[in-house]
Amino acid sequence: MKKTVLFLIGLISSIGFAQQTYYNDVNLTLTGTQLRDALAVKVSNTHSNSLSYSEIWTATMVTDLDPNNSNNVLLLYGWENGSDGDVTNDVSRGKNNNGGNVGDWNREHTFANSLASPDLDEFGTNGPPYSDAHNLRSSDVQRNGQRGNRKFAAGSGNSGTVGTAWYPGDASLGGTDWRGDVARITMYMYLRYGAQCYPTFVADGTINSVDANMIDLLLEWNAADPVSPYEDARNAYHENIANATAQGNRNPFIDNPRLATVIWGGTPAEDRWGIFTTDTELPTVPMNLMVSNETGNSIDVSWTASTDNIGVTGYDVYVGGVFDQTVTTTSATVSSLAPLTTYTFTVTAKDAAGNASAQSTGVDGTTLAGGGGGTDSSIYLSEYMEGSSFNKALEIANYTGATVDPNDVANTYTLKISTNGSATWNSTYTFPVGAMINDGDVYVIGNTGLAVCTGVVDDSNDSITGFNGNDAIGLFKNDVLIDIIGTLGDGTTFASNTTLIRKATVSIPNTTYIASEWDTSASNTCTNLGMHTQTLSVATFETETFSIYPNPTNGDIVYIQSKNNTEISEARIYDITGKLVVQQANPTNEINIQGLQRGLYILQLQIGNQTVNKKLMKQ
Fold first, then answer.
1. Could you say which residues form the signal peptide (predicted)?
2. What are the pLDDT digits (tens) for 435-447?
């Protein structure tokens, strides 16, 4: 027998299945714990009348009336009509037979008082949470005593103990199903009182994957035992504070059990409003992805909003096809990136029903040099000699404007080698104690068997200078790759019996090996080993859409010349660590750099939906 309750004259005139106006100011497009929290605010703010524990008697005699006998109240956990002589299992009793004696009914704390943390009566018995009317139900005194403070657990048949736990009862033996009532009350108490009333305190079972404070058994009961008109009547009474013993708020899970599914997942419950189960339309794919504000370790990604028949609730951002974060706006800052690395960003849109769009077309963004902070993040590999026999050496250049200590605790440098095409780094070179690289100078490391060049620092155990022409070599700062010769895991011979010299126009490291950044010389060439030149000039950019001049400059103004009169909406200048130091809207044809110190910078021009990066040297 399922609970069937007639509409109570004077209590409510009608109960429909449309969304109640009570929820008009709740964002029902939210999902998961965001929807949980929004509903929690609603039921807390509208709980305007604090009932005393004695007033609960009066309220229950109205809200819990037996539809077949208006002189009786329905008894939680009961299932029998009183004909078997056992009063403890009665489903109905005279509404005035309330008290604490055998044959009486009393007020059952469905969420047991002592299972809350702290107890529900921490602030006394008059007022919430102890006398919350949504938690208190009429129940036989002795049956209530049998339940005591036992936690709820799975079972079958009529109500009773299951080991040390309590099963509220179902209709499988012809009795009354109370599982949904218990589940929806427990969920309400969690909304209303938060950490004091976690469902895990009052029920046993599998922990929910969305919310570690929820028990999946309650979601199953909520779906298996639909809402009765009896529960609807209680909700309608307590919202209307014109009723003397109404408290002003509602239990959302009675109004729509599907809310629990939207929040915590699990077995889909009835959608009484019809707003969650009919939506199968996917949101449109996010379009016009753009990257901006590139730094050494972060990139901003933005896109145009997707559309949906109900409403888009959020966007999932992916980096290289791997999920990174969820946002509710049309932009995101992706951080913890490696310097001088190109990443591909894609975005999907999702709606309240859990529908997700396809991933957007990817957009590439490249971080600037640095990312680890400090002024020395731009030292880089400037020469590589892979000669005959043991004639092998590496050169590192410093154009940072300051002396670099490779063993500085804040900025520690190492070299690593990957041998014979290995996809992992096999050996590490640590700079000797006291090693210093002056500004504008180089540091040379040579194999102990090097015979053709002089003035180098020996690699005492040849940990890094035992390379061959197919061994990738990386320069690391704080164990993050910032520069590389060769390609990790490739195995291709890229420089055998060859000397590579970094071109003078290259001024920052690169985590991708690009052969065009290097000039080649014959095997065993030592001519340039121990010295390096770095230059930047306007000629470097002659083939591009824009040119900047003078560059290098010692003045306070840099001029921009456009070859096709393209409008620049913004100019941004970053230092070598990726910090934004100048930002100028609509720069026309000049940028004020009066406040910049001597050093290398990245000038970024915003042109429509694209950005163009230029190197800028302030002398």
1. 1-18
2. 888 877 888 998 8
